[in-house]
Request: fold
Amino acid sequence: MSQQSPETPILDLITTMTAASLEATTFDANTAMLVRIAALVAVEAPPASYVMNLAAAAELGVGEDEVSAVLAAIAPIVGTTKIVSASGNILRALGFVIEMGEMEAAED
Reply:
């Protein structure tokens, strides 16, 4: 198990769980992240969940076109209300990331 920080024990646990789930699947990492994004939509995840998962997906090279394709693919299953809700949560998550980046840049 990875070293946990005393400042972020929950985040460290989630990171460890995510890494274990990616190791346990036969999907390639990009596909696994797209499946995770679909699951976030299905459970009506809050923006913070999208921040973490979209950041990990982006590090793997997953782009907005692929995320949009996932939303389009699952829309008939989860319904338009969940897609609209997820889209709003994704936008809020991206806004949060941009705002944090601006705050960090202002501190430098």
User: Anything to note?
Assistant: The CA atoms of residues 9 and 15 lie 10 Å apart.
